Amino acid sequence: MRTHRLPILVAAVALSLVGRNRLFAQSSSAKAAAPIDLTGYWVSIVSEDWRWRMVTPAKGDYASVPITAEAKRVADTWDPAKDEAAGEQCRSYGAAGIMRVPGRLHITWQDDNTLKVETDVGMQTRLLHFGSWKTPKEAKPTWQGESAAEWEIAGEAARRRGVVARSLKVVTTHMRPGYLRKNGVPYSADAVLTEYWDLYKEKNGDQWLVVTTLVDDPRYLQLQWVTSPNFKMEPDGAKWDPTPCSAKW
Fold first, then answer.
1. How far is CA 23 from its chain centroid?
2. Rounded to 10 degrees, what is the CA torsion of 127, 198, 180, 139?
3. In whole angstroms, how large is the CA radius of gyration of the chain?
4. Which residue positions in the chain have pLDDT lower than 50?
5. Phi, psi of 199, deg, nearest 5
């Protein structure tokens, strides 16, 4: 009988520790429970889709986006001058498109359960809410929508590949209709944006942020649209240069 007591004791202790960790996770603020630190200044590294991100694509260039026939009809009417005149110059800076707009991010904690992400290009602010936060019933759709966030921890295999953590999962809804691409490729008010923010650290100290972005839109997309913009951490905000939204570049 004694030979079986040690495994049972170990199991009991393990369960106790799991319970304590869960209790800590429930009672702790998101800031205190953060597995890694995302705060600081980050710059876009355009390593893919250069022709669609660094310049405004020609009207009708919808390659790689699985749009519906209705989306094509809408995109074919794109007129940046009309957007400017109507005060809609921020259409391509909404949550579903802003992370692919080349520029810089400034990430800070607004409070213990709200991560704030500011962009210098377009001067947008995203608020990522942790915990039991709910979208206010009276809230109107905005360019950046309403974002619910949670920490996720990567497994050992991911850590061996250099992923510190599947650090952040963000689901954004309640978005004002905007553009996935500068040339009028639309997303609707029904779109749902899901993001996974992964942090990588190199041996030389460089830090990289990869934001895997999944857009689901039953109105304008035939399939889920997946992209992965990359950012590199900068030492400070010396190059931070806020500029307003523009329908043209």
1. 28
2. -20
3. 21
4. 1-26
5. -105, 130
